[in-house]
Amino acid sequence: MTHQAAIVGALLAGVALLAPTPSSAKITNVQALAGKPVEEGLSGRINLSANVRAGNVQLVLASAGTTLFHRTGDNVIVLNAKGAYGLKGSPGKWGDEPFRERLFEHLRYRRTLNAQWSAEAFVQHEYDRWRRLKLRALSGIGVRHDHKMGKRGHIAIGLAYMAQWEELLDATAVDLQGVYLEHRISSYMTGSVRLGERATLTLTCYAQPNIADLSDIRGLLESTLMFSLTDRLALKVTGWWAWDTAPPSAVRGYDVNTTVGFAFTI
To answer: What is the pLDDT of residues 76-113, one digit of tens each?
Structure first.
């Protein structure tokens, strides 16, 4: 087995070990780049995608997102933001409501303590109409351990405490007025490996149990393959599976998605 194949195998094995049994408040992967930015100043990516159909099927779906880093010495600021909007309908007529409407922002501060350990603090906001999420606001603090696996691979493991406030759309009596204050442990493992000169594979796993009820777990498995077309433009293929063992009423406990798009490096 080559060293590169060993790295891929280690990442897949680690993700399998961390994944709980499937059971929807989706976790969003904010560890889009497993390694730390090497250069001082600003770096990152901007992602854009669109799907337009006409004729027998009418559909418009647009999404945009960005992951930006700013590093000054041992201090790193990470911004992850994305949004999506989609309409569909029958021939000659659009639907009255969008089938996708989502907004997400995450801001994280990371302080390097030594070659392998960092301290992190973060805040986040999210809105998702079709998961009945009117508002999710959270903040947290934790630590991160980074480990290089040769020249082509990297793995990071993080553990944090976070306080989370949620409000649901169209709350019912079953939802307890649709307002929740929760305290969760957020754990993640993310790794990346270069496959040749142009391709990079990134795998990420999240697990977020509720401290007051450990059977209430939110999780995410995500894989991303980036293939560089030019020095700045890359083809991006992403697949993820998210689950929630205690979703709101009328919301499924899992989501699965595959996206193909382009990423532009700043």
So the answer is: 999 999 999 999 887 777 887 888 899 999 999 999 99
Domains of the chain: 3-265 (2.40.160.40)
Amino acid code (one letter) for 163: A
Q: Cβ(107)–Cβ(77) under 8 Å? A: yes
Tokens found for residue 156: 């990071």
- Rounded CA-CA distance 177/181 in Å is 12
Residue whose structure tokens are 């204050």:
181
Return left, alpha or beta for 150; rule: phi > 0 is left, psi -120 to 50 is alpha, else beta. left
pLDDT tens-digit map of 22-50: 334 567 777 655 455 457 888 888 888 88
Whole-angstrom distance between the N-terminal and C-terminal Cα of the chain? 36
- Can you point out the beta strands (E) in 7-116? 41-53, 58-72, 75-90, 93-94, 100-112
Look up the pTM and report it.
0.74
Percent of the chain with pLDDT over 90: 48
